[in-house]
């Protein structure tokens, strides 16, 4: 049977992630409350606003059960705000903002600037033959990646300063950008290969 992948559907482009999963033969299930976590084989945390997502996870009483599943090794793919949620350190978040501490990265929110500084760029990704069309919208960036983290792609932030934008640690994949906003399914397939 194809894997059942939960897509956190509190904010962000959850529908686009679900469509990408279905195109690749996986089953997708929206996750809004704790019972939606039952039987999932993996989860995608989409973009949005990380502090809002954190508060919505708390108010829906979903943060703790999801945190437990992630700590037990549930495969996860975090895009944009999802990257922030899975990181072990948010450098400029709110003091009450919580993350899941599943990948050893320190992340800065809006590392590339505000909404007006959003951009698209073809990036080289380790393991992919052709460049990937990355869509950056108020994107976070990785300032520090721990020794167990595999940096799969970087983007030049300023002259000569490369910043990691796609990272993997074990079965956790995170991206600064929005792969669900393109027709390119290779990163979703890379994630499904871990499930």
From TrEMBL:
It comes from marine metagenome. The keyword Metal-binding does not apply. One of its GO terms (cellular component) is cytosol. This is glutaminase. One of its GO terms (biological process) is pyridoxine metabolic process. Gene3D superfamilies: 3.40.50.880. Pfam families: SNO. InterPro entries: Class_I_gatase-like, PdxT/SNO, PdxT/SNO_CS. It catalyses: L-glutamine + H2O = L-glutamate + NH4(+).
